[in-house]
Each structure stands twice: as structure tokens, then as C-alpha cells.
């Protein structure tokens, strides 16, 4: 059968709501890669699971804008309520825009997101990590998610933005609600909660921007306000949306990198020992952790023209789920030990955890820096780091990560 496509009755249904999927989705991905790598789901979308196909799709001219979904395919995918003025949901964010809008927004944001500015954060990240490790040491252990993995990236992005005095805990709560919009949500009450949170965060963000206009400083928020190219500046709605995006994307996925990565190391003691023995292994180790358990499991694309992957033609206007986590476990790309954590894996940086192409994650360098500093200092500080209880997952399908990681530090 061309491209591994089987008769419909034999195709294993991609079912992210199946029991145990959010704890371990990889067996289902493996089945799809083997039997239906380009899978037309009965609900009207497509799932692409092999590395080569996901890579090709991400680097193609496929769209991210929901308006390009064929109305007959997913007519009710996202109902538009004109009374709702929440910038992140309504598409002002760069992640929801195609070129040339995406190119323009990214270029303006990137002016304030340079490698030099990211590297300048290293001392502050180290200071934050040391303080959190001190508190964990005093207690003899902790749940690593609320003690370190969650507060660290949020504090870093708030510092980077130069956020003025505000209710940062509330912003973190709202971000946690809004990120659920990246999940398949059918419950109207949950959707309403997400929209309410987005609207509230938009107000808080607007207030911060107004304060920053009166009190400019050498920080990212000021740089975004002042960013200009050929007379082009971010509109008020675009500015709010990009700052919301930075709060959410700069926090949620890095939480998962730190928590999932620590969990993977503790489940592979020989790899943990290798990392302790060779500090030069750290950059590749972080990328291998990203490959092994991707903080973001998938990314959407909408085809604008007939697209052939693994010998299967996807029609134009189709919603396609590019399964990043599956691609990162594809034995055809990574070898027969693709399901194994191996910190010295050659070419680990070619993972797709940060996406690829024009929408490659803008914060990839920051996430890598936070992870490298955290793991280096945590492993040096705690030679007897070990699991101290049951690990639980957050129950999310897309922004999937460890929700509770109790550890002992000896």
C-alpha cells in the first residue's frame, strides 16, 4: 500500500484521549509511523508522524492561519465572535500569522531578542537557580516543578521584559489557563475560561505597557515599544499580543524542558552519571532531552496546495497536525535506539522540538541557556539527587509535561 496507508478499518485511530496517552503517547505514535504515517483522521484533520514528513511540512509554504482551513473540512474549528477582543486568540500573535505579517512581526521582536541579550541573562539565571537550590537543600528535597521548573522561566521572562510592579502570580495563573488553548478543547466552559483569562491578561499587559511608556528602561518591553524598521512599529494590539506570547511561550514550554529533562535523567542513571563526569556534554545533552520528551508535542499547519508526504496526497485547505514528538522518536531518523535517552547522540540538535522553518521558536536560545545552567548547577549541588515519590503528568496532550516531580537531595 503506497506510503504505508492501510484500509480505513485497519488504521489504528489516533486517540489522544485514550487512557494513559498523556502519560506516554509514544506507543501510539510508533503505531502511526509504522502503519499510517500520513493519517486522515475521521474528525477531519490529518496527522503526520514521520520525521522526514514533519520536517518537510514545517519548511513548506503551509499556513498557520485558521482562515485557510477548508470550510467543508472543519467548519466549526474555531467560531469567530466579533465581540471578543483578545489579541492572542484573535490572531495578532506572530505564531498565528503567515508571511508577510509573520516576517514583519518576528523581525521587530527579534531586534530585542538577540543572542547577545540572551547571553547577558546568564548571571541572573545562575543567581535565581542558586537561590532555588538553596531552598531545596534546606528542606532536603522538594517537588521540583513548583520549587524550580515553574518559577525559574517565569521570573526570567519577567526580568527580561522589565515588567513593572504588578501581580506576577496572577499573570502566571492566567498564562497557565491560556496555554490550554493549544489543547483540543470541546468543553464550552473551559473555552470561556480561556477567553476570560486572555481578556484579563490583555488588560494587565496593556497596563504594563502604559507604565513602561512612562518609565522606559534598558529591557525587552521598552525595546518592543520602540522597535521600528522603515517607519513600521508594532500596533497596540500587536504589542499586547507579542508580550502575552513571550510570557506564555517563554514559560510553559521551558517548565516542561526542565521537569521532563530531570525526570529522564533520573530514569537513566547511567546517562546522569555520564553528564556528571563530562560537563562538555551539556549542550548536546539538553538537545537530547528535548528530542527524547518534547515540551511541545505538535504544531499545526494548513495546506494551501496539494501536498504529498510519504506518497499520500493531502488536499489544500486541510488542517494537519505535525507530530513533533513522534518525529523526534522516529527510528528512521534516529536509529533503533530512538526511544532511549543517549546524551552523546550524534546530531541531537536536529530535533524538531522547537519546530523548523520560518516559525522556528524564537526563544530556543533562552530555553537552552536556562536548561544548561539549571542542570549544571543542580547536578553539581546535589550528587545524591533521586526520585522521592510518584511522578505525575499534567494531563495535557500538546503542552505535555511532568506536573509533580518529588526529589530527595540526600
From TrEMBL:
SUPFAM superfamilies: Cytochrome P450. Pfam families: p450. It comes from Streptomyces spectabilis. GO terms for molecular function: heme binding; iron ion binding; monooxygenase activity; oxidoreductase activity, acting on paired donors, with incorporation or reduction of molecular oxygen. The keyword Heme applies. Belongs to the cytochrome P450 family. This is Cytochrome P450. InterPro entries: Cyt_P450, Cyt_P450_B, Cyt_P450_CS, Cyt_P450_sf. Keywords: Heme, Iron, Metal-binding, Monooxygenase, Oxidoreductase.
Amino acid at each position: 500500500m503506497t506510503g504505508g496507508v492501510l484500509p480505513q478499518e485497519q488504521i489504528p485511530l489516533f486517540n489522544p484521549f485514550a487512557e494513559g496517552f498523556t502519560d506516554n503517547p509514544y506507543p501510539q505514535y510508533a503505531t502511526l509511523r509504522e502503519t499510517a504515517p500520513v493519517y486522515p483522521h475521521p474528525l477531519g484533520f490529518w496527522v503526520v508522524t514521520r520525521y522526514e514528513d514533519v520536517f518537510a511540512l514545517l519548511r513548506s509554504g503551509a499556513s498557520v492561519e485558521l482562515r485557510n482551513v477548508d470550510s467543508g473540512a472543519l467548519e466549526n474549528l474555531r467560531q469567530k465572535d466579533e465581540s471578543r477582543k483578545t489579541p492572542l486568540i484573535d490572531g495578532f500573535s506572530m505564531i498565528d500569522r503567515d508571511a508577510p505579517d509573520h516576517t514583519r512581526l518576528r523581525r521587530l521582536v527579534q531586534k530585542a531578542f538577540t543572542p547577545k541579550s540572551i547571553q547577558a541573562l546568564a548571571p541572573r539565571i545562575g543567581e535565581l537557580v542558586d537561590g532555588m537550590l538553596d531552598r531545596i537543600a534546606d528542606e532536603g528535597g522538594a517537588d521540583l516543578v513548583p520549587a524550580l521548573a515553574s518559577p525559574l522561566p517565569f521570573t526570567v521572562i519577567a526580568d527580561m521584559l522589565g515588567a513593572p510592579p504588578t501581580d506576577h502570580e496572577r499573570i502566571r495563573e492566567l498564562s497557565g489557563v491560556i496555554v490550554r488553548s493549544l489543547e483540543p478543547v470541546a468543553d464550552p466552559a473551559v473555552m470561556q475560561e480561556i477567553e476570560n483569562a486572555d481578556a484579563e491578561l490583555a488588560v494587565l499587559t496593556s497596563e504594563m505597557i502604559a507604565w513602561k511608556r512612562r518609565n522606559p528602561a534598558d529591557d525587552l518591553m521598552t525595546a518592543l515599544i520602540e522597535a521600528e524598521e522603515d517607519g513600521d512599529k508594532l500596533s497596540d494590539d500587536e504589542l499586547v499580543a507579542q508580550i502575552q506570547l513571550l510570557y506564555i511561550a517563554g514559560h510553559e514550554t521551558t517548565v516542561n524542558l526542565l521537569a521532563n529533562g530531570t525526570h529522564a535523567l533520573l530514569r537513566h542513571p547511567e546517562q546522569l552519571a555520564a553528564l556528571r563526569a563530562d560537563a562538555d556534554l551539556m549542550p548536546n545533552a539538553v538537545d537530547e532531552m528535548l528530542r527524547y520528551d518534547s515540551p511541545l508535542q505538535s504544531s499545526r499547519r494548513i495546506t494551501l496546495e496539494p501536498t504529498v508526504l510519504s506518497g499520500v496526497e493531502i488536499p489544500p485547505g486541510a488542517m494537519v497536525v505535525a507530530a513533533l514528538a513522534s518525529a523526534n522518536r522516529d527510528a528512521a531518523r534516529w536509529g533503533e535506539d530512538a526511544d532511549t535517552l543517549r546524551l552523546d547522540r550524534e546530531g541531537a540538535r536536529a530535533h524538531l522540538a522547537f519546530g523548523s522553518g520560518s516559525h522556528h521558536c524564537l526563544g530556543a536560545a533562552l530555553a537552552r541557556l536556562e536548561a544548561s545552567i539549571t542542570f549544571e548547577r543542580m547536578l553539581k549541588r546535589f550528587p545524591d539527587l533521586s526520585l522521592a515519590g510518584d511522578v505525575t503528568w499534567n494531563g495535557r496532550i500538546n503542552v505535555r509535561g511532568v506536573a509533580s516531580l518529588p526529589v530527595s537531595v540526600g
